[in-house]
Design goal:
Layout: E1 16-17, E2 20-21, H1 25-28, H2 39-46, H3 56-69, E3 74-77, H4 85-99, H5 113-123, H6 131-151, E4 156-159, H7 160-175, E5 191-202, E6 206-218, E7 223-232, E8 241-248, E9 251-258, H8 260-263, H9 266-283, E10 292-301, E11 308-311, H10 317-339
Parallel strand pairs: 3-4, 7-10
Antiparallel strand pairs: 1-2, 5-6, 6-7, 8-9, 10-11
Length: 344
């Protein structure tokens, strides 16, 4: 374990330890009874044959995490409605060709006139015009796209609507003091970190990993708080549960049903993160049983009115979460036995 160098940068690529699969919560979900889990589904997920469904809200949440981490890695991508698909295709193919040539890509597409003419011929664009006219018309329409592609390498393109949503969510974070650790360092605790990776061996045989959005530790008071940023397309007050009405036994009755906290296995994520923090505390020489570990879900809506809420779920969820984690570990055990992964 001392030789393992798990970092926030290599977290998603760090999938093996001594030729054994490393269990993340995302992988464990495919072994949980509530999800119809099995050792075969876990192996398929590990081999990236199946994955989690990514809703627009989750995709925006991923962009928000990256934006908070480093806004400079993004580039605004305009809408190219005024540029025909055929011209867009020619520009993209021409830029790919230019990128393979020696030296930096020229700001003037005419530098690659021979390839430009070949692409126009292949795509049947502007063939009735003279070469000079064809190029001038291309340049007039496609130059903004060409210059955008010049700036794109190493950047993440961000569309206007997504950028607007992220800016609104950032504003909510800035206005809500309890969420400010997402943007600023916390100084009134003994240990603070963002994007904090933990590698640990669970039950002396399962290599595991987690990546905490935020962790705040006070050894003096024996408290640990984990903060996890979540985005939702639904009202934040419905994060844990919602309700509807139904006609039951001759009268209208309120019927509760669960929200994103259960639907997306966030209650098991909370439990698994707490297991990881206890393992980390023990490794550092502290008694994890003497600490109070809480988890705050900082939930922000991805649309108007961009409402936020700090949600501290009841500890009552821990028993159900523990049952699901145990079921997933049982599937992992079967998987490891069949593949002869055991090292511990």
């Amino acid at each position: 374990m001392e030789n393992v160098k798990l970092t926030s940068e290599n977290y998603f690529q760090f999938n093996e330890y001594e030729n054994m699969p490393v269990l993340s919560h995302s992988l464990l979900k495919h072994g949980m009874p509530m999800n119809g889990g099995s050792q075969y589904r876990m192996q398929a997920a590990w081999e990236k044959l199946i994955g989690d469904e990514e809703s627009p809200s989750k995709k925006l949440g991923s962009l928000l995490h990256k934006y908070v981490e480093d806004p400079g890695q993004f580039i605004f991508q305009p809408e190219w409605d005024s540029i025909s698909p055929k011209i867009q295709a020619i520009a993209e193919k021409l830029h790919r060709h230019a990128s393979t040539q020696l030296g930096p890509v020229s700001d003037d597409p005419q530098t690659y006139a021979d390839m430009f003419e070949l692409l126009c011929s292949e795509d049947g664009w502007g063939q009735s015009w003279k070469p000079e006219t064809r190029y001038n018309k291309f340049r007039e329409v496609a130059m903004p796209l060409w210059l955008f592609m010049q700036e794109l390498p190493g950047k993440i393109p961000l569309h206007g609507k997504d950028l607007e949503s992220i800016q609104h969510m950032i504003k909510s974070i800035e206005e809500h003091g309890a969420l400010r650790p997402i943007l600023e360092d916390v100084t009134n605790c003994e240990f603070f970190a963002r994007e904090f990776p933990i590698f640990f061996i669970h039950n002396k045989k399962f290599p595991c990993k987690v990546l905490l959005d935020i962790i705040e530790v006070n050894h003096t008071t024996g408290t640990v708080e984990i903060t996890d940023l979540k985005t939702t397309a639904y009202p934040v007050m419905n994060f844990i549960h919602r309700h509807t009405y139904a006609w039951i036994d001759g009268r209208v009755q309120e019927v509760p049903f669960t929200g994103a906290y259960v639907k997306y296995n966030y209650f098991t994520q909370e439990h698994f993160y707490k297991i990881a923090v206890k393992a980390w505390l023990k490794e550092k020489g502290y008694d994890p049983d003497s600490y109070s570990i809480t988890m705050n879900f900082a939930v922000i809506e991805t649309g108007e009115p961009y409402e936020y809420a700090d949600i501290y779920p009841s500890n009552e969820w821990g028993m159900a979460a523990g049952k699901e984690i145990s079921g997933a570990l049982s599937c992992a055990s079967d998987w490891f036995e069949v593949k002869k992964y055991w090292k511990f």
